[in-house]
């Protein structure tokens, strides 16, 4: 895998850190955020946008749905692909409503993460 830059947005530190570690071991540069507000702050101040955002839906402060709405309303951020990563039973339906590229149901496998990056970066 090339040195793709990714953003992992998940409030569960164990899940977030595990996904970051797996993706870094596979050659990616990865930044983590604990909620949508942190993610938006990062995106608005970075000089190199990620090629993919892996987004949890259920988070405090700003959940994934509110983040996605803000992202779509910002022309500088709206073109960054998003994959929803969630434990919601109806994750596919929620992902479709958010107009994201794909979804992964938790628990996530290493292959699912790698495939998402290969397909969208």
Short summary of the structure?
By secondary structure, the chain is of the alpha/beta class.
3D structure, described in words:
The model has no long low-confidence stretch (mean pLDDT 94). The protein is of the alpha/beta class and 121 residues long. It has a single domain (5-120), classed as Rossmann fold, CATH 3.40.50.2300. The protein starts with a strand and ends with a helix. Helices cover 41% and strands 19% of the residues. The chain has a 5-stranded parallel beta sheet, sandwiched between helices. The protein has helices at 13-25, 36-45, 64-72, 91-97, 110-120, and strands at residues 5-9, 29-33, 52-55, 82-86, 102-105. The protein has 5 helices and 5 strands. The longest helix has 13 residues, at 13-25. Helix 2 (36-45) runs parallel beside helix 3 (64-72).
Describe how the helices and strands are arranged.
Layout: E1 5-9, H1 13-25, E2 29-33, H2 36-45, E3 52-55, H3 64-72, E4 82-86, H4 91-97, E5 102-105, H5 110-120
Parallel strand pairs: 1-2, 1-3, 3-4, 4-5
Helix-strand sequence: EHEHEHEHEH
- Mind describing the biggest β-sheet? 5 strands, parallel
Q: What percent of residues are in strands?
A: 15-25%
CATH architecture, by name, is 3-Layer(aba) Sandwich
The domain count comes to 1
**CATH top-level class:** Alpha Beta
| Portion of residues within helices | 40-55%
User: Any idea what the CATH superfamily is called?
Assistant: Response regulator
**What is the overall pLDDT average?**
94
**Helix count from the secondary structure assignment:** 5
Distance between the termini: 10 Å
């Amino acid at each position: 895998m090339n040195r793709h830059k990714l953003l992992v947005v998940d409030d569960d530190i164990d899940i977030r850190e595990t996904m970051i570690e797996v993706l870094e071991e596979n050659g990616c540069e990865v930044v983590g955020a604990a909620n949508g507000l942190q993610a938006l702050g990062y995106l608005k101040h970075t000089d190199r946008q990620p090629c993919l955002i892996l987004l949890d839906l259920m988070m405090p402060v700003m959940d994934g749905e509110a983040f996605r709405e803000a992202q779509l309303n910002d022309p500088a951020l709206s073109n960054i692909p998003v994959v929803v990563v969630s434990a919601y039973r109806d994750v596919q339906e929620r992902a479709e409503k958010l107009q994201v590229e794909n979804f992964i149901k938790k628990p996530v496998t290493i292959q699912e993460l790698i495939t998402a990056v290969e397909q969208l970066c």
